[in-house]
Design brief:
It comes from Sinorhizobium saheli. One of its GO terms (biological process) is RNA decapping. Pfam families: Metallophos. This is Calcineurin-like phosphoesterase domain-containing protein. It is a single chain. The protein has two domains: about 160 residues, Metallo-dependent phosphatases (Purple Acid Phosphatase, chain A, domain 2); about 60 residues, no CATH class. About 35% of the residues lie in helices and about 15% in strands. The chain contains eight helices and ten strands. It has a five-stranded mixed β-sheet. Helix 1 packs parallel to helix 2 and helix 4 crosses helix 5. It is globular.
Amino acid sequence: MTSTHTFAIGDVHGRADLLRSLLDGISDRAGRIGCAHRIVFLGDIIDRGPNSREAMNLVSSTLKEIPDSRLVLGNHDSFILRILDEQDSGRKQALLLHWIAKMGGRATLASYGFDFSNADLDRILDVVDVVDVDHVAILRGAEKYVELDDHILVHAGVEPGVPLTRQDPYKLMWIREPFLSFSESFGKAVVHGHTPTSSLMVERFHRRIAIDTGAHDRSILSALHIPPRGSEKVLQAVAPLQGAVR
């Protein structure tokens, strides 16, 4: 059993202000209890919120500075890779416009300096090139999930009845049902984001823990502290109180 404490962080969605506060709060907690710790980001670092680039910079520095920290790929994060890797120009443009109009990609591109007021639609396929090369590399190197002794950390959830090693990567990023209503055991507690909780709080169900508390539209970013032994604890960064962590 590892002696490292794990802090799983839910969907950031461009709220670098909340992420910075939460990372500071985690560092303070780890320092107070004198533990080695790591961060596992559960994906959707980008889109919708105003500071996706800065949020990715915080992820990058965390992965470099805190040993064994990981990024789990979210469905929003993966969309950049889908666009970059698409070879058909028509399909590529359709994916890009969908991302910009429906998924919050407009805010992401603006955070990287793309000027929509002077956008040339003939060059629309090139706009993803504004995303930092090292950020793309981080996304390409992201995990599908992270497995602990008693927990599975994943973006959206898992497909019931399918062994973890045989899970469809697409479903790990996108699934809702039948995962959310599944009433039996997954073998380990599944810690996930993707589906925002209705209470603005981290919600515990039968063998799953939902930690997406709506950073973008409700200004609450949550983390689950998972010690090597003992019960989980919750940390939250809340706006507009700058730096407030509870």
